[in-house]
Write a structure and sequence with these properties.
The protein is of the alpha/beta class. It has helices at about 1-15, 45-55, 70-85, 110-115, 125, 135-140, 160-165, 175-185, 200-215, 225-240, 250-260, 275, 310-320, 325-335, 350-360, 370-385, 390-405, and strands at about 30-35, 60-65, 100-105, 140, 145, 150-155, 155-160, 190-195, 265-270, 285-290, 295-305, 335-340, 360.
Length: about 400
């Protein structure tokens, strides 16, 4: 009898200590995919979702929800939803509330992972070894992959090729040359000199970072002479008029529309802008070049939400969106920079390949939202009041240190 009982105990213990099957991790079913507003020509993100839905059964359909165009508003909505569903014991009861697959800015990934909003991913499942190394590093936290690089971005300089050709000029390679052409050439044609994204949002952090790098500074060290010089240059542009005052409220869309209407000589924007411009009257009259200094590395990753109960479908959908075929279509039809390195071998991507190679990451790390927030406040004030630029950068140095410590 004792032997029988002992045998039963062994069986019970073995059963209790065996592998636990996570039903959510292997869950299959309809999922919700969220991304920022699809401003691509012809709605290419929606087209990719439609392709998936056509090729898959009703049991694995993807519902596409477009979020606010503003990256700050988008992040706030993702965070609020993740916080609402965090720690819910029965995830299936709130399945319809979950954003199963989220497109997240590369600089958000670390904070989202550490906050417990994301599911870890297996690198081999998505072939991340074939992707841009810097983009993969930005999606990896403490040795774990939390998202898959999907769209790669780096700042570009768009210019009126017809105007520069008429003047016998090449596109500028330094900020000094750009300022000179913006001051002297643009007024002759009734054009704004230079447009960027200077509204008080994430775009301002990016534009200011690029100016700091070009002058030997860094957004991590705002009190350094080079950082101050970069911000003084932009502030001086507003004061002197070669950057229009209206640009203090421009985001990507507003600046692109202004340039597309033929009203500016130069525009700093992302690779996707080319597909939009090719549908306008400027289609044969603009060119692209590298910025006069390092470009900011941008991009969007795809992550699986911790609240998802259909994670197998979610992972399969991410693998579909990030494969070479889908990325190639998004490149050709929407101008989105790919993360798959083999797609950069074509001659048509030589410019973007070179820019990506020298692009720099923003100060990624913990409390990024707070860091970028204090930067936006101080930088916007400095651009509006150039005389305060140096003092603002000194104050910003202390505010960034406090933000990084969560204070």
């Amino acid at each position: 009898m004792r032997g029988v009982i002992a045998a039963l105990v062994v069986v019970l213990v073995a059963g209790c200590t065996g592998p636990v099957v996570d039903e959510d991790a292997e869950g299959v079913g309809t999922i919700t995919f969220v991304d920022g507003e699809d401003t691509s020509s012809g709605g290419q993100i929606k087209a990719a979702v439609d392709q998936w839905n056509t090729e898959h059964s009703d049991a694995e359909q993807v519902e596409f929800e477009q979020m606010p165009r503003s990256t700050d508003a988008y992040r706030a909505q993702l965070t609020a939803r993740a916080q609402d569903l965090a720690g819910v014991p029965d995830r299936s009861a709130y399945r319809s509330e979950c954003y199963d697959v989220m497109s997240v800015d590369m600089v958000w990934t670390a904070d989202f992972a550490r906050a417990g909003y994301l599911e870890p991913l297996a690198p081999a499942r998505f072939g991340v070894d074939r992707m841009l190394p810097e983009a993969v590093r930005a999606a990896t936290v403490d040795g774990t992959l939390w998202a898959v690089p999907w769209r790669a971005d780096a700042g570009l300089l768009y210019y009126r090729k017809d105007v520069l050709d008429r003047e016998g000029l090449e596109p500028p390679t330094t900020w000094g040359e750009l300022e000179h052409q913006a001051r002297t050439v643009a007024p002759k044609y009734g054009l704004d000199g230079y447009l960027g994204q200077f509204r008080r949002y994430e775009g301002l952090t990016v534009n200011a970072s690029e100016a700091m790098w070009a002058h030997g500074g860094s957004p991590d060290r705002p009190a350094d002479p080079g950082s101050k010089a970069g911000v003084r240059m932009l502030a001086g542009g507003f004061a002197d008029g070669w950057i229009p005052q209206a640009a203090l409220e421009y985001d990507e869309e507003a600046s692109l529309v202004r340039f597309a209407e033929g009203k500016a000589l130069f525009l700093r924007s992302w690779p996707y802008a080319v597909s939009r411009l090719r549908t306008t009257d400027l289609r044969d009259r603009f060119g692209r070049a590298a910025l006069p200094g390092p470009a900011a590395l941008g991009g969007w990753n795809l992550a699986v939400s911790r609240c998802s109960t259909h994670q197998k479908t979610a992972r399969a959908f991410i693998a579909f969106l990030t494969n070479a075929s889908t990325q190639s279509k998004l490149l050709v039809n929407a101008g989105y920079g790919p993360t798959v390195t083999e797609l950069y071998r074509t001659e048509s991507l030589a410019l973007l390949r070179g820019i990506m190679a020298g692009a720099r990451a923003r100060p990624v790390g913990g409390h990024y939202d707070e860091v970028s927030g204090v930067m936006q406040v101080r930088l916007h004030g400095a651009l509006k009041s150039p005389a305060t630029a140096d003092a603002s950068m000194d104050v910003l140095a202390g505010e960034i240190s406090a933000a990084r410590e969560g204070r």
